[in-house]
Amino acid sequence: MEAMVSKLLIALCWATLACAAQPPQKIFPYAYSQEDLPNGLRLVTVPTDYPNIVATFIVVQTGARNEVEPGHTGFAHLFEHLMFKGTEKFPPARYNETLNRIGAASNASTSDDFTVYHTTFSREDVETVLQMEADRFQNLKYSEAEFKTETLAVLGEYNKNSSNTFRKLNEVLSDTAFDRHTYKHSAMGFLRDIQDMPNQYDYSLKFFDRYYRPEYTTIIVVGDVNPKAVRELAAKYWGMWKHGSYRPDIPTEPPQSAPRTGHVDWPQQTLPIMTVAFKGPAYTDSAKDTAALDVLAMLAFSPNSDLYQKLVIQEQRADTLGANAPTSMDPALFTISARLKKAADLAYVQEQVLATIQTFQEKPVDAARLDTVRKRLRYGVALSMDNSETIAAIVSEYVALRRSPDTMNKLFEQYASLSPEDVRQAATRYLVEKGRTIVTLTGPGGEQ
Amino acid sequence: MRRLVPFLLLAAAVPAQIRTVALPSKSPLVTFRIVFTTGSASDPAGKYGLAYLTAMMLANGGTENLTYKQVVDAFYPMASGLSAQVDVEMCTFSGATHVDNLSGYYNLLRGMLLTPGWREDDFKRVKDDAINALKVGLRGNNDEELAKELLYQNIHEGTPYGHYSGGWVSALEAITLDDVKQFYRSQYTQSHLILGIAGGYTEVFLEKMQKDFRKLPEDGGLQPRITPPRQIESTRVVIVEKDTRSVAISLGFPIRVTRGSPDYPALLLASTYLGQHRMSSGVLYDRMREQRGLNYGDYSYIEYFPRGMFLMEPQPNLARQQQIFQLWIRPVEPPTAKFALRLALFELDKLCREGLSQEAFERTRGFLTKYVNVLTKTKRAELGYAIDSAYYRIPQYNSYLKSALAKLTREDVNGAIKTNLRTSRLVISVVSKNAEELKRQLASDDPSPMTYNSPKPAALTGEDKTVERWPLNLKAADIVVKAVGEVFQ
Fold first, then answer.
1. Residue B64 burial (CB count, 10 A)
2. Which of A38, A291, B330, B453 has the most crowded Cβ, counting Cβ within 10 A?
3. Which of A53, A149, A268 sits opposite B377 (nearest CB)?
4. A248 lies in some domain
5. Does A165 share its domain with A287?
6. Count of CB atoms within 10 A of residue A21's CB?
7. CB A137 within 8 A of CB A213
8. Under a CB-based contact definition with an 8 Å cutoff, are residues A379 and A256 in contact?
9. For residue A64, which of A246, A251, A205, A242 has the smallest C-alpha distance?
10. A417 touches chain B (CB under 8 A)
11. How far is residue B54's CA from residue B39's CA, in Å, rounded to a whole number?
12. Tell me, what's the ipTM?
């Protein structure tokens, strides 16, 4: 049926948004094409000069955030599994056999905001991959029995993660900090919901029908490819996919009115961990908030920060310290985490973290240090883009937010425009006591 | 297209030359992999972890002229650093820089590797980190890795590989900074050095680098002869008792095959047929996870693959003279642990008895022939594989494997299976709570029936009837239970 569609007609119908080479100053150094099919599917093709290899990253803007109904957390992640259950045309055995034959590395992952399916393979197999991917996105079919078995693999994944202290602490942190928004649960979902998944076959069909739609999906193709040929293949295999109509009603998190705390008693010997978190903004590249908080995280808590040098290198009370600024679709947490050598130092380290924040709120940072961070950010990108698969992975994170690689350029333009006062203002606006949640984790007896 | 052949200059032939693996290109990046062919196999008795601490002191400490803070500050705007990987026979220092920063980056790297600062406060921090990596990282937070490392240690007990590369807690506590300096002086020598470099550097730069590294002592200190593990007379089990949700299992036995062996391509193909990490086409993945929902995945390897849960593919520069065959069974729910173990052995037995069909052979060969491109997709990996090829004295890995696979027959593979694989005389390593109860179960011939949450085909439930009674041939005396605090102590 795909062949019935006129390639020319499709080509004419597509809205070509950007096809020209990027100016050299852009952080994303590759010329790319970005086009929309009439059904809402977006295609981003990035030819690179790395020979032979092609990577496809298919981003579905559905993650833990979209799991709005109680009792059904973890379903976006469950689909990351179910999508390998096959179709009539490509049952799992044939799907796997084909991937096997073409020597492809294939996998998927799920986060708060999106699910991404990726495959890396040799360039002569582009059509095979795009055809198989199109088929499973449109015609996924699994029986209730297959569904039930796969939910056990998800439980197996929870189990293999369950010996990790940071994962447990993050679960408790999200649950403590959020009341209504779906960021309250991790992408894995609550354990009780994972254990109930085998009973939710009908709900899974509904979930797929809602979210596995072209308007939620962007195909990213990076590597030794010709954009025109990729465009024709996308039209041929993905052009018939039907646009959906579902829009989730994602609850707005009410403002936090007082600081919160949480604690995890870990049954095994471990080092104590402390996370200090603050309610931050949603991702933005049209204002300075995201860029300013990201830079703040680096200036205040990365390995060359004064606090890291003090706690990790000089006093040696902590073995790790770091911070993450939020880059999510909706307002999320700015987190500072430290792993300590003794539980007796928890109060001291908390005090040091809060004092550091206060310093950044009171005094603009040194402009030279800000420039150093900007330099690091740019070289960090240059160093990581050393193969087509990694380039596709980087692009996918920005596409997940705004469906375009240009998102990356816009964010870096914000970094470039930041002043020391912008960083100070972001610290003052977001790192406030009433938006704070502190969660600690200690081993038996509170000591290691 | 570029066709870059690594060149190798053997120090033995031309003593004044440094062994170098170089992959020049027009890339704006320069990647370094500096390998010393020494590692934890050279740890003196009672000083397990000395090679590890020495490498960590170099990668995470200051230089003669710069404190560690100054090193961190200097690397910071470059978005780079130097990382260390320590294995039994290789210590690898790797990093990359944009050519804009090549001179500054190299000065740091040179200072760290050739003129270390040896400060007591750096040593205290690095030693604390090493001890916590064992106590908290390996024993506390990673049951799968714990089972896997325990398997290696148990198999190699009594040989230079017989302790974890990251050391043992009590040994690390006793190691002094003088021990570290002594290890550096005796082992970080030109004769143990392979310089690896790739990307957009100049010939002049490489010559300067080689000249700099000639400042290292020429001759290496003594290294132990790497001996094969002792014969495993009968299957033995070690269970680590730990309060944890699920049961992690690794099992294996020594093989005489390494990357340079004639049987390597055939055995790699057989192992790939059983399955590699996250490849849904593997037999174990299909039978254990996909059909029965036992866990998150199950895989087979014939080369050391540490940190597997964080990596899609094995990292290079873990070259070894002795390897084992291993099955990695990801954590299962406790009631299914015995069945999962039996099923893994049932599948291994089937492979040993029946070998691969012609169709499976061709499919797996096709996969590996192309997948090797994926293994070497980054400059970092390409350089690492080239260094390993130099170590094993084989041609460039991609061409070596592709050409070997092209010549391979199904009979070669099935012959290699017969020669090298088995289901008896194993070591089985388990991390679980209620270890004594699990020991009792494993030592009994009682069936371990499997129940499912959905109907299964008759063929599968029929097969389960065989699997649930699969003989483990274990007696209580074959099974040792250890408290988690005892291992790597």
1. 11
2. B330
3. A53
4. no
5. no
6. 10
7. no
8. no
9. A251
10. no
11. 10
12. 0.87
3-state class (DSSP) for residue A322: strand
Q: How far apart are CA A53 and CA B374, in angstroms?
A: 8
Q: Are B311 and B296 in contact (CB under 8 A)?
A: no
Whether residue A126 sits in one domain with residue A8: yes
Taking 70 as the threshold, does the pLDDT of residue B243 lie above it? yes
The helix (H) or strand (E) run that includes residue B19 is strand B19-24
Name B329's Cβ contacts closer than 8 Å, sequence gap at least 6: B248, B249, B250, B251, B288, B295, B298, B340, B341, B344
The mean pLDDT of B36-57, rounded to a whole number, is: 97
Distance CA B82, CA B109 (A): 7
Contacts of A105 in chain B (CB under 8 A): 279, 312-313, 371, 374
B399-440: pLDDT as tens digits: 999 999 999 999 999 999 999 999 999 999 999 999 999 999
Token pair 């240690």: residue: B153
Contact across the interface for A383 and B79, Cβ inside 8 Å: yes
Is A133 among the domain residues? yes
Cβ of B77 within 8 Å of Cβ of A313? The answer is no
Do A429 and A310 share a structural domain? yes
Contact call for residues A422 and A428 (beta carbons, < 8 A): no
Direct distance between the N- and C-terminal alpha carbons of chain B, in angstroms, rounded to an integer: 52
pLDDT for res A100: 82
Average pLDDT over every residue of A150-165 = 89
- Please give the structure tokens belonging to residue A14: 């597509």
CB contact under 8 A, A159 and B245: yes
Same-domain pairing of A53 and A134: yes
Instruction: Say if A448 is an interface residue toward chain B (CB within 8 Å).
Output: yes
What is the DSSP pairing of strand B19-24 with strand A273-279?
Answer: unpaired
Answer yes or no: do A268 and A232 share one domain. Answer: no
Query: Is the minimum CB–CB distance between A242 and chain B shorter than 8 Å?
Result: no
Question: What is the per-residue DSSP string for A15-47?
Answer: EEEE-SPPPTTSSS-S--EEEE-TTS-EEEEEE
3-state secondary structure of A132: helix
In a domain, A397, yes or no: no
pLDDT of residue B16: 60
Query: The domain that contains A157 carries what CATH number?
Result: 3.30.830.10
> What's the half-sphere exposure (Cβ side, CA atoms, 13 Å) at A127?
6
Domains plus CATH for chain B? 19-213 (3.30.830.10), 236-486 (3.30.830.10)
- Burial class from Cβ neighbours inside 10 Å (0-12, 13-18, 19+) for residue A380 reads middle
3-state secondary structure of B254: strand
- Contact of A96 with chain B, judged by CB distance below 8 Å, is answered with yes
Q: Does any CB of chain B come closer than 8 Å to the CB of residue A145?
A: yes
Residues A221 and A72 in one domain: yes
Which token pair is B365?
């060969």
CA–CA separation, B148 and B146 (whole Å): 5
Unique residue bearing structure tokens 């439930």: B461
Q: Inform me whether the C-beta atom of residue A99 falls under 8 Å from chain B C-beta atoms.
A: yes
Q: How confident is the model at residue A102 (pLDDT cuts 50, 70, 90)?
A: confident
Q: State phi, psi for A342 to the nearest 5 degrees.
A: -140, 140
Contact status, residue B264 vs residue B401, Cβ threshold 8 Å: no
Tokens 């070497």 map to which residue?
Answer: B376
CB atoms within 10 A of CB A151: 26
The SS3 assignment for B197 reads strand
Q: Which of A201, A316, A339, A386 to mutate to test the interface with B (most CBs of B within 10 A)?
A: A386
Q: Do residues A228 and A339 both lie within one domain?
A: no
CB neighbourhood size of A377 (10 A): 21
Q: Is residue A315 part of a domain?
A: yes
Portion 202-241 of A in contact with B at CB < 8 A: none
The pair of three-digit structure tokens given for residue B352, joined into one six-digit string: 């040993």
Assess A100–B contact: CB distance below 8 Å, yes or no: yes
For chain A, what is the domain count? Answer: 2
Read off the pLDDT of residues A244-254 as tens digits, 9 standing for 90 and up. 999 999 999 99
